[in-house]
Structures are given as C-alpha cells and as structure tokens.
Design a protein that fits this description.
The chain is an alpha/beta fold and about 500 residues long. The chain is about 35% helix and about 20% strand. The strands form 3 sheets. The protein has a 9-stranded mixed beta sheet with strand order 7-8-6-9-10-11-12-13-14, with helices on both faces.
C-alpha cells in the first residue's frame, strides 16, 4: 500500500516507521519546513535507508519513506490510506482531498488496533477533559501490583503502535493488559476501537476550535465506550458522562459502573468514612461493599489528596476491578503511585504558607478542581485563554480567594470576571509577559498570603505566551518559590 502519514511529530514518525516496517510505501507530509522538521525528516529517511535495528520490522520488508515538507495540504498521488497525527483538524485540506478521492483517513491508534495479533493484550481506555494521565498511571500501578505485565501508553507519550507491534518481540514477555490514555483527537480517528473496559472521567468545553462544537467533542469522547465488553465507567457527578454510556453500543453483558466522592450505590465505587469502597464488583451489590484502600493511600506523603485525585483513583480502581484485580492490589498500587510534576505538586511551606504547583491546570475545568482542594488561596492565574471564559470559575471559587496575581497575555479576561463576581478580592495585574514575571508573581502572592493560606499556581490557561510548555511554567514557579523561601530563611 501507499500510505500517507500526516504530521512529523512523535506519533507520525512512529506510524511511518511501523508501516514501512510492514512493507508499506510511506509518504510523510508536514506543513512546516523548519529546523525541527528537517531534522526529523533526515532521521526518518536515514532509518529507512540504513535498515536501523532500532525501528519496527525488518529492513528487508521496508518499501521506503519519503518526507514532503512545507506542503501539508496536497494529497500525494496514488495514496491508498491516510494516517493522521492527532492534532490535525478534520477540516484540513488534505482530508478534504482524501474524501474526494475515496481514501480513508484514520489515526495511529486505529492502525495499532487493526494490527493487534490474535493473543493481543486487552485495552483499558481512559479519556476525559482532565485527569487522564494521572488516572492511567494510577491504573498501570494497580495492574503492576497485581503482578500483571502492563504499560501506560497512548496520549501519555508512548506511541501505542510501537507497543502493539513490539509485544513479545525478541523473547520479551507479552503484555497482559494495556492502560491506554486516549484524547478526543485520537478517538475521532479510531472508529474500530473496542476496549475491554473504558472510562470517561469528566466533560467540559475544550478543544472546541478543533471539534467545532461541544456536542461533537462529547461525541468523540463517547467513542471510547463503543463495543466495550465488561464495563463502561462514568462519573456520577458529571451526568454527561453517564449519558455517553447510555448512548453507547456495547457488547451484551457490559455494565455501567459509576464512581462518586460520596457513598456509592449498587454498581458504583465511592468513599465511606475515609475508605475507597466497591459496590460494583462484589457478589451482592445490594448489600455488600468491599474495602479497597484508604483515601490516605492515594499518593501517600503528599498530604490530603485533592478531591479530583480521589475521583481519578476511583476510576482507575473501577477499571482494574473490571479486569479482575484483587482489592489488595488496588491499595498497593495506589500507595506505589507518585504523581507527575506540576500536578498539585507541593513545593514548599514557609511562614505558615503552602506553595502548590498545578501548572498542568491549563483550562478552567482543571483550575476549578485545583481551587476546590484548598480553603484559603492566593491564586496565580493567566496565560493564553484559548477562547475560554472565566465567569463560572470565579463565581464558584470566589469565597476561597484571599488574593489573585494575574500574568500572561489574556489576564484581562480573568481580571474582568473577578471584577464582576469577586470585586472585594485584591488583584495584582502584572503587565509583563516575559518569563521573569513568574518571580514577581510569587513575590506578590507571598505578600498577599497569610498563615494558613495556599499560594496556588493553577493558571486556567495555556502557557505558550510566556513559556515553551506548562512544565517550564511550573519549573519557573518552583524555582521562584525556592529562591524566595531560601532568601527569607
């Protein structure tokens, strides 16, 4: 086959290698033509030419890779199939041309699903507006505690096509089950995917410029439930996730399993007196509940877990229990789990003030969950709003705010929402977007804070106006906090 791969990023390069290794003739197209793209193109073409052992498949089966930079709109002549990287919009001219030519467009997740062998590992899928990565990593930790050979893959950073084609390669033990993080982009391009069990953690407006509407975004998230065989896990507090379960076409016998921060009903997991309990995977759901872990087992040593991380743990536990994991493994897996940096990360305590880095809170839904975790907050917020509005977020969080420090290009949108819904809260508006603004923001936040307060970086915005990514933004916050607290002590 002649397969066109759209995009020269991590997933595009991975797909190109895998498909060439299986004998396809591959053309990779990318609209960019900078140093980064040229370096990636040279690496791919060298791989195809030399038969490097680092790739998937044997050199003798490679039909070659051609890379075309600076033109991502034109469909290469003779294309039989287009494999797209997740970020390419459905309205891209390349896909319009493919549709006109009768050529299918799919994603790398779809290719990975189609290429699974007869004894392939089961997939446990996780999606949602926020919390996907944390939940998938919790799930993988629980599965490992059960003694299963597993890996967290997909949108989390490890291309799933590499894992599927490499299972059992060179005598390695095949995976028993995969914990798969799936974005709405990936689900849009994966029509054949049928998971063992899957969860939608939450739904809030995000990526609407890509999907076109909230309805289309939700529908793509809901694709993760299609064809599930054992469990569709939903958030009891988010009715939209339950509606997606009701709309899904699942296998006979597949069950709807809810998770809640309150007392669980039958077929739910929840919290009772500081315990995570299961009323879904027990013999008598009406009368029995199985203790799984203590709330304190969630990332122990990091303080009281934020409510949304308790919800993430319950979702991970539900998927693990659907796969037959024992209660003790849920506890042990949660105890062994350590959150990634910049996700409700404790940085320091000084003069009675706690400093928390949640730079990963890049949208209003994530920031709302972060703000809900603390009682008295000096909030550092701002960046690129991506079309978001902030009135609802400010309304819900106003009573917790001791003060606000605003940074970034779209800070005026947050300032205006604060003026409407929290006019009594002191606001410091930093009229600078250089990276050094974070040090000033931390100083101003410290000035506003009182003993018992939390200085919280939860920007509710993307970072690219000031930083390369949210990691660099979080690093700048942590560095500023440590510099300040070290100087003061």
């Amino acid at each position: 086959m002649h397969i066109t791969v759209a995009g020269l990023g991590v997933s595009g390069s991975s797909a190109a290698r895998a498909l060439a290794g299986l004998g396809a003739r591959v053309t990779v197209v990318d609209g960019g033509d900078g140093d980064k793209q040229r370096a990636a193109a040279a690496e791919l073409e060298e791989w195809a030419a030399t038969g490097s052992a680092s790739g998937t498949g044997g050199a003798g089966h490679r039909a070659g890779i051609t890379v075309r930079l600076g033109d991502g709109d034109t469909l290469p002549e003779g294309t039989d199939l287009v494999v797209t990287s997740p970020g390419w919009k459905p309205t891209s001219p390349l896909f319009t041309a493919a549709a006109a030519a009768g050529v299918d467009v799919v994603g790398d997740v779809e290719i990975a699903w189609r290429l699974r062998g007869p004894d392939a590992a089961a997939w446990l899928g996780v999606t949602g507006t926020n919390g996907k990565t944390t939940t998938v990593r919790m799930l993988a930790s629980i599965l490992e505690a059960e003694g299963l050979h597993t890996l967290a893959v997909g949108n989390i950073g490890t291309p799933i096509i590499d894992v599927v084609l490499g299972q059992g390669k060179d005598g390695a033990r095949p995976y028993d089950v995969l914990a798969v993080e799936l974005s709405s982009y990936q689900l849009h391009w994966a029509p054949s995917l049928r998971a063992h069990s899957a969860a939608v953690l939450n739904l809030a407006p995000d990526h609407l410029d890509w999907h076109g509407s909230m309805q289309a975004y939700a529908a793509d998230k809901g694709r993760i439930y299609e064809g599930n065989t054992v469990a569709c896990v939903y958030n009891v507090a988010d009715k939209a996730t339950e509606e997606l379960v009701r709309a899904a076409d699942v296998e006979e016998g597949c069950r709807a399993i809810g998770f809640t921060l309150g007392t669980p009903g039958p077929s739910q997991l929840g919290v009772v007196e500081g315990l995570l309990v299961d009323r879904a995977f027990v013999e008598n759901r009406q009368k029995q509940a199985q203790e799984l872990a203590e709330v304190a087992d969630i990332a122990p040593g990091s303080g009281t877990p934020a409510p949304h991380n308790i919800a993430n743990a319950l979702a991970a536990a539900a998927l693990a229990r659907a796969f037959g994991v024992r209660p003790a493994a849920v506890r042990d897996g949660l105890r062994a789990f350590h959150p990634d940096a910049h996700r409700i990360q404790h940085i320091a305590d000084a003069d009675g003030v706690t400093y928390i880095d949640d730079s990963k809170a890049t949208n209003t839904h994530a920031a709302e969950a972060s703000l809900a975790a603390y009682e008295h907050i000096v909030w550092i917020a701002g960046g690129l709003a991506k079309g978001a509005t902030f009135d609802e977020l400010v309304q819900k969080s106003a009573a917790r705010l001791r003060g606000v420090v605003l940074i970034g290009a779209d800070r005026a949108l947050i300032r205006e929402a604060l003026a409407r819904h929290a006019p009594e809260v002191p606001v410091v508006d930093l009229d600078r977007t250089d990276t050094g603004a974070m040090s000033q923001a931390v100083r101003e936040a410290t000035r506003l804070a009182e003993p018992g307060d939390t200085v919280l970086l939860a920007p509710a915005c993307a970072s690219m106006d000031m930083f390369v990514n949210y990691n660099k933004r979080g690093d700048a916050f942590a560095d500023a906090v440590r510099e300040l607290t070290a100087r003061d002590h």
